[in-house]
Amino acid sequence: MRQQIAAANWKMNLTWEQGQQLLNGILGANVTPKQNQAVIIAVPFPYLTAAKEIVEKKAGYFVAAQNCYYKKSGAFTGEVSAEMLKSIGVKYVVIGHSERREYFNETNQQLADKLNLLLENGIVPIFCCGEPLAVREANEQNSYVEQQLVESLFHLTPEQISGIVIAYEPIWAIGTGKTATADQAQEIQAYLRSVLAGKYGKEVAAKIPVLYGGSVKAANAKEIFANEDVDGGLVGGASLQADEFVKIIEGLK
């Protein structure tokens, strides 16, 4: 079975005191991930080192950064490089989140550059892709997501792409309370995997974890995760409540 992942994305929320309380609440539930599972918590940059010390004392739990810059180093005030994240032991980084694409105009090429730097530094990228509402309403979501994959991922070798995580996020369902149905999630994630198989072969595509992101919560997580091509979730708002996120972890295959 592919790795199953419950990933939390705190975004720009919580003071460190609130973050500590949340982490203690999640870890205090004493849910131990199975051998094929991981719990990843993406925290704001200032909290990475302190959160890592708390989280990684428990097997199967990891901290992630929410972004990195697409250049190796240089005069880029306020940015954080992949090499910096490696130096403090960060193992996962979320890139290409729809909010980064929309508000900061991140391009598929910049994301390709970020992927290269992360992989060079031995960090696992969690690569986000997904379509806005207008694209979904026009029934063009498949070609839209395929273009994101082709332009950002298809320069990678089979070995390299086997070392990433993909998170499909229907942008129209992020923070809106709307959620793709379990069937909708399975349909596009199966298509996404077929695109990977077309480039890299079925064996490689079958190994890559593909998460669903978009208003995942305790009430719907288990149903969504039960789909063959859904390997867990990238969770926003519900990850800010310990009891909700714990139930989402428990919903993994």
UniProtKB/TrEMBL annotation:
From which domain of life does this come?
A: Bacteria
Instruction: Please indicate if the UniProt record lists Cytoplasm as a keyword.
Output: yes
Q: What is its EC number?
A: 5.3.1.1
Reaction(s) catalysed by this chain, per the record, are: D-glyceraldehyde 3-phosphate = dihydroxyacetone phosphate
**Biological function:** Involved in the gluconeogenesis. Catalyzes stereospecifically the conversion of dihydroxyacetone phosphate (DHAP) to D-glyceraldehyde-3-phosphate (G3P).
* Family the entry assigns: Belongs to the triosephosphate isomerase family.
Describe the protein's quaternary organization and the partners it interacts with: Homodimer.
User: What GO molecular function annotations does the UniProt record carry, in alphabetical order?
Assistant: triose-phosphate isomerase activity
In what pathway does it function? Carbohydrate biosynthesis; gluconeogenesis; Carbohydrate degradation; glycolysis; D-glyceraldehyde 3-phosphate from glycerone phosphate: step 1/1
An example Pfam family from this entry, by short name, is TIM
Q: What is this protein called?
A: Triosephosphate isomerase
PANTHER family found in the cross-reference section: TRIOSEPHOSPHATE ISOMERASE
- Where in or outside the cell is it found? Cytoplasm
Q: Which species is the source of this protein? A: Pinibacter soli
Q: Which NCBIfam families match?
A: tim
Which stretches are transmembrane? none
